[in-house]
Amino acid sequence: MNPDPYAPCLLCPRVCAVDRTRGETGFCGETRAVRAACACLHFGEEPPVTGPRGSGTVFFTGCTLRCRACQNAQLSRNGLGAELSVDDLAGIFLRLQREGAGNVNAVTGTHFLPGILEAWQAACARGLAIPLVWNSSGYETVDTVRMLAPHVAFFLPDLKTLDPALAAYWFKAPDYPRRAAEALPAMAEARPLERGPDGLPTRGVIVRHLVLPGRIDATREVLAWFSEHLAGRALLSLMSQYTPIPGQPLEPPFDRGLTPGEWDAALATLEELGIEDGYVQDLEPGTEWLPDFSRERPFSAELSRMVWHARDGAPAG
Ligand code: SF4
C-alpha cells in the first residue's frame, strides 16, 4: 500500500498513477476531495438491502467506468456534487442512521475508498451502528475488496459483461471481464452469505446484471459464468431497466429498451441454468423513474426520502 493511496492513484484497475493529492485527475475525473450529490433513504434496492426501513444511499460524484448510457451521468460524467470533509461525510452517515436507514449504501465510491473508510471509522466512533453496503460497478481490484471486507455487510457489485469487446465499447475497459471475474469471487469469499431466522439474507454478495437490448448472448455468458462460479455463494439480481438516456445518443440496438421477447429469453436462461436464489425486476418501459440529481428530490416519493442534497452545501452533522 502506498503511504498515501491517492498518490500515485492505483485504487482501481485503471491504475492511472496520477497524484490526486496535487489536484491531478485520472479516468474517474476526481481529486482526493470526496464529493457526493445526495443522500437519501432508498426503497427500491433488492429486498435484503432495502429492508423494512430503507437503505441509506449516498451517491458519489465521478466514476471509474463512465458507461455510455449511464442513468447517473450527471454525477459520473458531469461532476455534479459538493465537496465533503471527513467530518461532513461521517455526519451524513449518522444522519441516515437517525432518519431510520437500515444501512449506509455507498454508490460508486471506489475512487474515494480511503476517504469513505476514514469517514466510516469516524462515524463509528460517534455511534454509527448500521452496516455498510458497497454498491459498485464490479470493476475493483482484489486489494480493494480485502480493504472493504471487514466493514461491509453486503457487496452489491454489477457484472456488466464478460465480453471484452462490449466492455471496450461500453466503458473503455476491455479488462473489465477479467477484473470482475477476480473481484466477485473474492467478495464471495470475504463475505459469505448469512441468513436471519426468517431466511432473509443479512450479509453476503448480490450480483446485479443489467440485460442489454440485442445482446442476449452476452447475458447468457454472464449467467453461465455466475452459475459455475458463484451460484450457492452469492445471490443474483437480474435487471430489466436498461433505458436509453435522453442526450446520450447511441447506435442500434442500444438506442431502445428491452423487448418483452428479450426479457423472456433472459428469464428462460435463468431457469435453464437453475439459478433460483435472487431477484428479478418487472419489465416496465418508460423513463419516469430516471433520477434527476439537479432536482431537490432526484427520485420519486415512493422510491426515496431525501436526507441531504449537494445544493444545501456541507451538512450539519
Ligand atoms: S480511482 Fe480514478 S485516478 Fe485512481 S486509478 Fe481509478 S480511475 Fe484512475
Give structural notes.
With 317 residues, this protein is α/β, with parallel strands linked by helices. It has one domain: TIM Barrel (Alpha-Beta Barrel). It has nine helices and eleven strands. Strands 1, 2, 3, 4, 5, 6, 7, 8, 9, 10 and 11 form an eleven-stranded mixed β-sheet that branches. Helix 3 (86-98) packs across helix 4 (113-125) and helix 8 (216-229) packs parallel to helix 9. The longest helix has 15 residues, at 176-190. It starts with 34 loop residues before the first strand and ends in an 8-residue tail after the last strand. 44% of the residues are buried. Bound molecules: iron/sulfur cluster.
Give the overall average pLDDT: 94
Major beta sheet summary: 11 strands, mixed
How many DSSP E strands? 11
Helix content: 25-40%
Binned strand content:
15-25%
Radius of gyration: 18 Å
